[in-house]
Amino acid sequence: MEFVLIPSGSFLMGCNPSNEKCNDNEMPQHRVSISQPFYLGKYEVTQAQWVAVMGNNPSRMKGRDNPVETLSWKDAQVFIQKLNQKEGHNRYRLPTEAEWEYAARAGTSSAYSFGDDANALSGYAWYWGNSGKTTHPVGQKQPNPWGLYDVHGNIREWVQDCWSDNYQGAPTDGSAVDGNDCKWRVLRGGSLFSDPSFARSAYRDAGFPSLRNNGYGLRIAARTQ
Question: How far apart are CA 72 and CA 224, in angstroms?
Answer without folding.
Answer: 26
